[in-house]
Design a protein that fits this description.
Helix content is 36%, strand content 24%. The chain is of the alpha/beta class. The chain folds into 2 domains: 115 residues, Urease, subunit C, domain 1 (Roll), CATH 2.30.40.10; 294 residues, Alpha-Beta Barrel (TIM Barrel). Strands 3-2-1-4-15-16-17 form a 7-stranded mixed β-sheet. Helix 8 links the parallel strand 12 and strand 13. It is globular, with a radius of gyration of 21 Å. The model has no long low-confidence stretch (mean pLDDT 97). Bound molecules: guanine and fe (iii) ion. The site of guanine has 11 residues, from helix 1.
Length: 422
């Protein structure tokens, strides 16, 4: 089957670069991109073209870190630092997902909102509940989203009687979950030790062994907050740095994503680069919980892989347009903190992180490269007044800073049209 989308095509083939093809054609065969063309060749004479007129056609978003069961507390309870916030807000909210019916309702709404925002790839935390995790995976799959979801492992320092599992339960339920989700096509499992303080050494060792045996990716949190890092040092006096608590158990390689990394110093960043770990920058959350301002620009310059995450509900925006603008602003705050010595992220660089850099974790090439699965957003952005005709790149910049309600016209995910504006 041939898909031909026509419009102003903007893609991010390299960090900081935007390729623009005005009134061009984005073509896919059986959901796989063959290329972007300024004119339609003879071979497609008579083929049906979805003509989006003057709309922008851009890559869809990859949100590489978010907590699905924190969706009900979006925009609430951000008056505490991380560890207190977890106990006061996050854990009690996640505890509700012991109820499958509640999970179904919330996760259906979340999947719908992700689609309408143009997020088609995710790397997502569920809660510790196996059944709710399977419901989440099912709802995402049905909505047309692709990516990874993890049943959270947390066998210590949870909320007693509210949100906890024993080591034995955690292991057994992880195996049950992995068995039960095998048949999903687009949503795959990712091992998810919540963070080092939540997992006993025995559980970490079990997960590391499982990752190797079953060739599974891993997601967790790293160096987000000072008190968290002190705690990790007490728990693992044998480890010089936080990342070594993951490395020690086989949870540190090129299929690992680590959220935040606000306080990762040169040595920790070098360890990320050496192992090929992907850092997920969560600018909204880092600011909301006063965690800090991650040195993202420096990480990029050092060759560390960085993508973006909404981190709802530490983050208060699910929409990656907003998250991208937050990342750009955070990098400017970092520049000011660094005595204006570091450059900031440009919008084009932020856009690359929100799209191509995230897609890379799923094995894709940057931009609308031939061979990539078709993941795209069609964007109409003509409701704001313009003082002159804007270039497609200027329109994209404005869409990032000033997301307009209802601008997303259509969304394509893994070759399927999964959203059309009602
Ligand atoms: N560290 C461990 N759990 C969490 C969480 O739910 N949110 C954030 N932001 N950090 C965490
Ligand atoms: Fe998080």
């Amino acid at each position: 089957m041939t898909t031909i989308l026509k419009g102003n095509i903007v893609s991010a083939p390299a960090c900081g670069r935007l390729d623009v093809t005005e009134h061009g054609y984005l073509i896919a065969e059986n959901g796989v991109i063959t290329g972007v063309y300024p004119v339609l060749s003879e071979q497609y004479a008579g083929a049906s073209v979805e003509d989006y007129g003057d709309c922008l056609i851009v890559q869809s978003f990859a949100d590489l870190h978010l907590h699905a069961p924190q969706y009900p507390m979006l925009g609430m309870g951000m008056d505490l630092p991380l560890l207190d916030w977890l106990n006061a807000y996050a854990f009690p909210t996640e505890a509700r997902f012991a109820e499958p019916d509640y999970a179904r309702t919330v996760y259906r709404q979340l999947a719908g909102e992700l689609v309408s925002c143009g997020t088609t790839r995710v790397c997502m935390f569920s809660s510790l509940h196996t059944d709710a995790t399977l419901i989440l995976m099912d709802e995402l799959e049905k909505a047309g989203i692709t990516g990874y979801v993890g049943k959270v492992n947390m066998d210590r320092n949870g909320a007693p009687g509210v949100l906890e599992e024993t080591t034995e339960e955690s292991m057994r339920e992880t195996l049950r979950w992995l068995d039960a989700c095998q048949d999903l096509r687009h949503i795959k499992p990712i091992l998810t030790p919540r963070f080092t303080p939540s997992c006993t050494n025995e559980l970490m060792a079990f997960l590391g062994k499982l990752a190797a045996e079953r060739d599974l990716p891993v997601q967790s949190h790293l160096s987000e907050n000072g008190a968290e890092m002190d705690w990790v040092r007490q728990l693992h006096p044998d480890c010089r740095q936080y990342w070594e608590t993951y490395k020690k158990y086989g949870l540190w390689n090129d299929r690992t994503v680590m959220a935040h990394c606000v306080w990762s110093d040169e040595r920790e960043r070098q360890a990320m680069k050496d192992a090929g770990v992907t850092v997920v920058h969560c600018a909204d959350s880092n600011q909301n919980l006063c965690s800090g301002v991650a040195p993202v620009r420096r990480m990029l310059d050092e060759g560390v892989k960085v993508a973006l995450g909404s981190d709802i509900a530490g983050g208060d925006h699910l929409d990656l347009f907003d998250v991208t603008a937050a990342a750009v602003r955070a990098s400017k705050a970092r520049r000011m903190m660094d005595d204006w010595n570091t450059p900031f992220l440009t919008v084009a660089e932020g856009w690359y992180l929100a799209t191509s850099a995230g897609a890379a974790f799923f094995g894709e090439q940057p931009g609308f490269a031939a061979g990539n699965s078709l993941h795209a957003i069609v964007l109409a952005d003509d409701t704001l007044p313009q003082s002159r005709t804007l270039t497609p790149a200027e329109r994209l910049e404005r869409a990032v800073y000033r997301r307009q309600e209802g601008a997303v016209q259509a969304v394509w995910s893994a070759g399927r049209k999964i959203y059309a504006k009602p």
